[in-house]
Amino acid sequence: MSGKLKSDKELAVSKYMTDTEAKERLWNKEYCKAMCGNFMMFFSFYLLTPLLPIYLNEHFHADKDLTGLVLSGYVTAALVVRPFSGFIVDCFDRKKVLMLCFFSFFICFAGYIGASTLLMFAIVRTLHGLPFGATTVANSTVAIDVLPSSRRSEGIGFYGLSNNIAMAIAPSAGIWIYSATDNFAILFWISLAVAFTGFLCAYSIKLRKRKPIEDKPRISMDHFFLTRAWLMAINILLFGLCWGVMSNYVAIYGKERLGITDGTGVFFAILSIGLAASRLYGAKSLREGRLTGNALQGAILSSFGFSLFALSPGMWAYYLSALLIGLGNGRMFPAFMNMFISVARKDQRGTANSSILTSWDIGMGIGILSGGLIVEHIGYTAAFLFTAGSQITGTLLLLLSTRKFFIARRLTD
User: Which residue would you say has higher pLDDT here, 152 or 203?
Assistant: First the structure.
């Protein structure tokens, strides 16, 4: 009898442990769907990014100044919509908001196919920034909702891997497809199809109903921007500027100065390897809460990468810098994402997401515009030196001020 009782107790404990592990499982179905949808969204968008300067030059004879202005339109639109999208995601049904935004994002790709003039293209590109900005906020907030609280820091890090890998491998895929076909229309159709696949992934996500937040002020600055994270936002802006210059001008730089076309695809492939390796290696320390350490290590690695690219324009530096930048960004960005979430209340997760992405967008926009101006009037070397300077400035700000700022404002879950 005692043996049977002991067996029953062991079974009960085993079942409890199994149930607990299931509840705390990181890679649950809904989280995986959110990651897949996010990957498809970023892949479809960044498949075109490095080739659009070439497209605008070849089809519309746009110079570098005008190209920078046209391409920065989506950043401006995303910047305008993101603070409001954080408020909407926090206050309304997140699944419905996500579906509306993702569908709008997908359908905008058809506009590229039909744009026959530079003005039409500029309008489509700018309008595309609206659903892009809103969808990134909605989808990332949904991903956080389906994560168990004990695995949230780790999960946010892995979630960011989906868009980082997409941003790294999509440009190389786009360059390869263009090299093989010499046809931009094919690229536009592929982006449309991939975006639709992402929409289907998001559509299949199942969310628990949220209880409405009581006694929440109807109008507050924190609905639109997480004021508790203002210094962290400035830090992310400086890092986003670097990516704005690099992602938009590295392909045309490689073609004009280094005489490589397929090599640009290799650059982004190496970058993606660095991003993936860094995310995987840093997952444990994120789970243990070492956020500022991860952020600083990544910022330092990226500083070396951008500096190497600017100071040594040889082939070896071109590829080694890609690895260093990938390792750095893969370490830095998920740490900052967790830092924003950690200083926000539970009812501010959408606002926290929109705040970090808005800051990144501002930096991207400044990088695209300033990069175009510097390249046109001074040269590529000056543009990439400017990028390295921005990265180093952001690293010093993180080291000297932002770390203490975050620790003083961090909230417990």
Answer: 203
